[in-house]
Each structure stands twice: as structure tokens, then as C-alpha cells.
Write a structure and sequence with these properties.
Helix content is 0%, strand content 50%. The protein is built from no helices and 13 strands.
Length: 208
């Protein structure tokens, strides 16, 4: 099955918002019975083609996402994402907050993204996709999920992206949780409320 690998279709495209721009939004996989992928994507880096909600599959552009949620049929099937236009091209069409983009593999739509913001792209030392959050009375909000990269020390601030907003978490502490007889990395967040840390949210180390 076509996995949406970048095919170079964005070469030379420009859209007026400049190179090095990062798109942030919320992605949702289409269910297989609705025409989405038959084989679930495991999550991680993903390079599909994309067209605006008002466009057509005859005018796709290339985009790459650092880390997408697993799905459909795996995990939550939706979550926060960050992507950039391939080959350094500018944004090929209007992509302001609230814009919906359709992601496609070949000519088949497989997912959609609602854009939350566009901002200059910056390197991040780590990301953490939240699968579960819980209140720890007197301490903060604990989260379980998947860590990519390394958190060099506890107590630093981080950026949290949920479905519809960005927040700065004043302090992130690295801890461990015993799950099903083993240990998993868990984070303790201070200065936010549990309701603000929904499954699918993405934590990232603040840009240098």
C-alpha cells in the first residue's frame, strides 16, 4: 500500500508565507470503512500529499509531519501534529488557523488536519505524545505516552499543544510509572489543569 512517501510534487511552489514555516494542527485518520487506510499507520514520521478542503485531489502538494498519531484502528486515531512543506517550498495555498487540509495517499483521502497555527520551524530536543492524563493531588498532572528524544533534566518548561490551543507548562518533571509489571516514562506537569491535557495532545521542549 502507498504510504504517502514524499514524491517531490512541491518543487518550486511558493505561497507567500516563506520557507522554514511549521504548520501545527490536529489530525484525524479516516476510518477504513469510510475509505481511509486499510492497513493502520503505526505513527511517527509521515509524508503524504495534501490539498485544501476547497481544492481537489488533482492539485496535491507534498508535506512532511514529524510525528503523527497511530491509526485508523490503532490508539486514539487522532492527535496534535507539526508539519512542514517539502523541499523548502512556501505555503502553496491559504493555510490560516481553522483551515482544513485533506491528506491523501495517491488520490485516496486518508486523513484530515485542522490548522491551529503557523510559526517558524525550530529544532526540539524532545516530544511526548499523551495517551493518558491523571491528577496527582498536591503535585500536578501526571501523563503517560510516548517520548521521542531525550529530556536532559527535570524542572524546565515545555510547550503543550491540544486540539485547539497552545499552552506553556511551567515545569515538567521526569518520573516513571509501573505499568503491567514494567516501567514506563511518565511526566509530571506543574502549572496546568488535567482538562487541558487531553489524550492526543503533544508536549515539546521549548525552542532554544
Amino acid at each position: 500500500m502507498d504510504d504517502g512517501t514524499d514524491n517531490g510534487m512541491a518543487d518550486g511552489l511558493g505561497g507567500g508565507l516563506g520557507d522554514g514555516l511549521e504548520l501545527s494542527g490536529w489530525m484525524r485518520w479516516f476510518a477504513a470503512e469510510d475509505g481511509g487506510r486499510g492497513d493502520p499507520h503505526p505513527g511517527g514520521r509521515y509524508a503524504p500529499t495534501v490539498f485544501a478542503g476547497s481544492g481537489t485531489v488533482g492539485d496535491p502538494r507534498s508535506i512532511t509531519f514529524d510525528d503523527v498519531p497511530a491509526g485508523p484502528g490503532l490508539g486514539l486515531g487522532e492527535g496534535a501534529v507539526h508539519g512542514w512543506w517539502s523541499h523548502g517550498a512556501g505555503v502553496p495555498f491559504g493555510c490560516g488557523p481553522g483551515t482544513r487540509l485533506t491528506l491523501a495517499e495517491g488520490l485516496r483521502p486518508v486523513a484530515e488536519v485542522e490548522i491551529l497555527a503557523n510559526a517558524p520551524r525550530a529544532d526540539r530536543a524532545w516530544t511526548f505524545r499523551v495517551s493518558e492524563s491523571f491528577l496527582i493531588t498536591g503535585r500536578g498532572v501526571g501523563v503517560l505516552g510516548d517520548l521521542t528524544g531525550a529530556i536532559d533534566r527535570s524542572g524546565l518548561s515545555a510547550e503543550l499543544q491540544s486540539r485547539d490551543q497552545f499552552l506553556v507548562v511551567p515545569e515538567v518533571w521526569v518520573e516513571f510509572a509501573r505499568i503491567a509489571g514494567g516501567e514506563r516514562v511518565a511526566l509530571l506537569l506543574r502549572g496546568v489543569e488535567k482538562v487541558q491535557v487531553a489524550p492526543g495532545s503533544l508536549l515539546r521542549g521549548c525552542a532554544p
